[in-house]
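Hi all, posting the design record for the shared folder.

TITLE: backbone redesign
STEP: 1 of 1
STRUCTURE INPUT:
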């Protein structure tokens, strides 16, 4: 039996068996019963001959093959290789490994490829509302610049470090440099920037992705398959930009407000120190003082008036699946009946929030048919229906929105709304009044 390697020192036993990485290799009696990785002089010598380098490469390849489970063997072996040979050996050790998953692409190349893919897929997400005005874009850019300068100042300039070299993957990135200590650190950061979400190939929904061990070794693909997509697997309908009826596309805030037969009151505007808006009161609704037609006539710009009128005309036809016209008819009836109605008269009771199809009247371009409304989702929940059938009234049932029981057809306002927020239509997460409406409707349903 040949002796086993005595190791680099007593504290550093040998790990370099090529057959069993992590176990001691055979020691060479001519080299003090050590292997090449545990004998500094022999290592120097071996690196000078092609034959020596060939043998070292062969061992490194064997260690690399066990990298997933025992990365320390390869990493320790590399520390024993003279500095000037690191690059050569590392490259050689990674060569000739079969299978696409094992092919090693530099971190930066992977990041660029994934960023490009994300760009293509995100282009499929479309705004429901009109694009931002240049004033809004400028204000946003200003805020972004301020955020980036603040973080650079805090972590670099205030610590007497030179200004950071940004390594951004998105226009709203933080402007900080990428980690440099190890590939693993780079990959984990890229998981935060590129891998923590996936976009479904089929329905284009976004879906969060947990951090897995493999994320420290490669950048995840931008897309997820329909099989792994929660919405596709659950056969849930996800709204698509192409489904928004033509006359309702690209309306701006002013037009939406003119089209509403109701006024929304979400309480006084208050902001927390961190900038978030505070929920100050439950949402209340009032019939608008003017009829919708009068509101549209009051719009100043002629093109805006035409656009609003076209949307109105569409919404009032039988062709529209929206319940908008029902609300407009009720509103007009109210105005005829109470011509001098005061603010208090026009105010609707709290439970108005549960009126089925209400969203169609308030956000006609986000809710273009009655079936997609959260109020409908709430009213058609099997638990609510069962309770209503049992009790003869549809109140007072406890529903826990958070427990997800797959396979059971239980409707949840929160899930139904989140499906829209993460859908390829941009707009559901943008409107504070809508967010508060959904929040209040959820709370109201739990009481
Ligand atoms: Zn050894
Ligand atoms: Zn999907
Ligand atoms: Zn459902």
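Okay, here is what came back for every position:
SEQUENCE:
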């Amino acid at each position: 039996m040949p002796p086993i390697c005595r190791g680099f020192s007593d504290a550093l036993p040998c790990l370099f068996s090529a057959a069993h990485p992590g176990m001691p290799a055979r020691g060479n009696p001519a080299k003090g019963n050590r292997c090449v990785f545990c004998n500094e002089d022999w290592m120097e010598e071996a690196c000078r001959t092609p034959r020596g380098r060939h043998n070292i490469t062969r061992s490194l390849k064997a260690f690399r093959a066990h990298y997933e489970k025992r990365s320390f063997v390869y990493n320790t072996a590399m520390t024993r290789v003279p500095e000037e040979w690191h690059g050569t050996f590392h490259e050689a050790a990674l060569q000739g490994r079969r299978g696409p998953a094992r092919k090693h692409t530099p971190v930066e190349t992977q990041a660029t490829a994934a960023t490009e893919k994300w760009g293509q897929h995100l282009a499929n997400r479309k705004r429901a509302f009109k694009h931002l005005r240049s004033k809004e874009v400028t204000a946003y850019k200003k805020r972004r610049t301020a955020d980036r300068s603040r973080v650079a100042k805090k972590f670099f300039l205030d610590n007497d470090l030179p200004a950071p070299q940004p390594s951004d993957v998105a226009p709203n990135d933080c402007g900080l440099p990428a980690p440099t200590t190890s590939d693993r650190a780079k990959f984990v950061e890229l998981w935060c920037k590129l891998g923590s979400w996936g976009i479904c190939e089929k329905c284009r929904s976004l879906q969060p992705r947990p951090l897995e061990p493999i994320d420290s070794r490669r950048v995840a693909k931008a897309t997820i398959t329909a099989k792994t997509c929660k919405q596709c697997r659950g056969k849930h309908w996800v709204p698509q930009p192409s489904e928004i009826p033509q006359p309702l596309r690209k309306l701006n805030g002013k037009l939406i407000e003119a089209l509403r037969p109701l006024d929304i009151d979400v309480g006084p505007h208050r902001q927390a120190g961190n900038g978030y808006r505070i929920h100050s009161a439950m949402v209340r609704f009032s019939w608008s003082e003017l009829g919708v037609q009068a509101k549209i006539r009051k719009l100043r710009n002629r093109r805006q008036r035409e656009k609003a009128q076209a949307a109105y005309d569409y919404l009032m036809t039988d062709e529209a699946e929206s319940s908008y016209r029902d609300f407009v008819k009720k509103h007009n009836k109210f105005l005829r009946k109470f011509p001098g109605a005061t603010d208090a008269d026009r105010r609707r009771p709290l439970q108005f929030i549960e009126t089925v199809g209400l969203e169609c009247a308030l956000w006609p371009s986000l809710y273009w048919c009655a079936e997609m409304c959260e109020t409908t989702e709430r009213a058609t929940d099997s638990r609510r229906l069962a309770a209503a059938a049992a009790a003869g009234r549809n109140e007072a049932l406890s529903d826990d929105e958070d427990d997800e029981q797959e396979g059971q057809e239980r409707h949840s306002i929160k899930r139904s709304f989140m499906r829209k927020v993460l859908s390829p239509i941009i707009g559901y997460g943008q409107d504070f009044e809508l967010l508060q409406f959904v929040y209040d409707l959820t709370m109201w349903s739990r009481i």
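COMMENT: The chain has three domains: 29-100, 107-233, 241-446.
Let me know if anyone wants the other runs.
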